[in-house]
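Write out the bound-state structure for guanosine-5'-monophosphate.
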Amino acid sequence: MASIFSRIIAGEIPCYKIAEDENYFAFLDINPVQKGHTLVIPKDEKDYIFDYDPEYYAGLWKFAMKIAKAQKKAIPCKKIGVAVIGLEVPHAHIHLVPMNREGDLDFDSAKKLTLPAEEMQQIADKIVKEL
Ligand code: 5GP
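---
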């Protein structure tokens, strides 16, 4: 069965899309750990990020770099933090999280945010504008 992320790529489940190319896709995390938290995913669905061939894997990070640069311009923060965790959704993904201190990358589900749709859309629009 297709992962929830493959269903997002296919447009079956809505998302706040940031960018897409032939191989990769970026969208806002629905329960961000910080405002602007974005997921970058390969369109080729595999659970484990180190199972891709090296070229495709390198392309994912190159795509993520573009997104992180746009996030950094759009969201006031010191850096964009990076994490690959992948225990919840079995489809490889890179978390890109605007951060001001190390504790800002806390994936404890009890601390995650649920923002109004309007605010999520505004954040997505700001990042997209900087691409
Ligand atoms: P992980 O697998 O890295 O532990 O976490 C998966 C991430 O995907 C979580 O941060 C979660 O909030 C996010 N997520 C799970 N389902 C959806 C969804 O349907 N839409 C979006 N935009 N994000 C999701």
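---
The CA atoms of residues 32 and 113 lie 5 Å apart.
The pocket of guanosine-5'-monophosphate is lined by residues 4, 13, 15, 27-31, 39, 85-89, 93 (CB under 6 Å).
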